[in-house]
Write a structure and sequence with these properties.
Elements lengths: L14 H17 L4 E7 L2 E6 L7 E9 L7 E6 L3 E4 L7 E10 L11 E4 L8 E3 L2 E4 L4 E8 L5 E5 L5 E5 L2 E3 L2 E7 L8 E7 L2 E7 L7 E8 L3 E4 L2 E6 L4 E7 L3 E8 L2 E4 L3 E4 L6 E9 L1
Parallel strand pairs: 9-16, 17-24
Antiparallel strand pairs: 1-2, 2-5, 3-4, 3-6, 6-7, 8-10, 10-14, 11-13, 11-15, 12-14, 15-16, 17-19, 18-20, 20-23, 21-22, 21-24
Length: 286
């Protein structure tokens, strides 16, 4: 029989095979609407995410990645999750990621779109010590320590004119920033923040005192006297000495300085006076 006289025969696919092929086609079609993207990245760690498939037959997702585009040596079955954190990536290496969806029978779709992430060559973290400092109206100086990895660069600056960076305006690795704070001639307190290695360093300073004289209230109990006594006016920043004299048959027992008990002495001096004070002398029989 001649082959030219033979009619071709059409083979009808089995129903189950048609169903599987149809499902796979639908699954692949739906995945084309799933977009993979980098949700966040920090150093050797990256978070991948994608929108969920609208097909109720999809029971989970797999995330693939590797160091060559289109070739994925690693995978993670993330179930129904729509994001995955991938960590412990190699410094300076580029990674490529793609996702697939699958159903309860394990039928898996084609890959989604591919996204890439290059791990920074050096992962730098910074910390400073201390993070804040308070100064009196007279100002002063201080220093801040910077801690980071070797090779990590940083800078230090202050927007406030009354805070001056005197050394360590920039550096690499661990270092120290030195600064000065000018005297506050205004009556109001003030605050400012310096930026050191990307961290905030806060400085607070008291305002100038408007009072130029202060009062020291001096008193003595029975059995002796104090000199001078009563309300004694003194100039700001000055010193004042008080003398205690026991009466005959008595001795100095103790003093109350600003309400705090201290051991007795026949003289007591307030130095660099910048506030009101009190002194009281108490005596006892010998």
């Amino acid at each position: 029989m001649s082959l030219s006289n033979v009619s071709p025969t059409y083979i009808q696919p089995k129903p189950l095979l048609r169903l599987k092929l149809l499902f796979l086609f639908v699954l692949i079609s739906l995945l084309s609407m799933v977009t993979l993207f980098v949700q966040g990245a920090r150093g050797a760690q990256v978070t991948l995410a994608w929108n969920a498939s609208s097909d109720t037959a999809v029971t989970g997702y797999k995330l693939y990645w590797g160091t060559q585009a289109g070739q994925y040596a690693l995978l993670a079955d993330v179930g129904k999750s729509v994001s995955q954190v991938v960590s412990d990536l190699q410094s300076g290496t580029s990674y490529h990621f793609a996702a697939t969806a699958y159903n309860a029978q394990g039928v898996e779709s084609n890959y989604s779109n591919e996204v890439s992430y290059k791990v920074p060559t050096t992962t730098c973290t910074y910390s400073i010590t201390p993070t804040s400092k308070t100064f009196a109206e007279a100002g002063g100086s201080g220093s801040v320590g910077v801690t980071t990895q070797t090779g990590c660069s940083w800078t230090a600056s202050s927007p406030a004119t009354w805070i001056q960076i005197t050394s360590g305006a920039s550096g690499t690795g661990n270092g120290t920033v030195a600064y000065t704070v000018s005297a506050n001639t205004g009556t109001s307190s003030r605050t400012a923040s310096a930026s050191i290695a990307g961290q905030i360093f806060s400085i607070s300073q008291a305002g100038a005192q408007t009072t130029t004289t202060y009062t020291i209230t001096a008193s003595a109990g029975s059995g002796g006297s104090i000199s001078p006594s009563g309300s004694v006016s003194v100039s700001k920043g000055s010193s004042k000495t008080f003398t205690m004299t026991p009466s005959s048959g008595y001795r100095l027992h103790y003093l109350l300085i600003d309400g705090k008990r201290v051991r007795g002495s026949t003289t007591y001096t307030f130095s660099n006076i910048v506030a009101n004070h009190s002194i009281a002398a108490y005596f006892r029989k010998k």
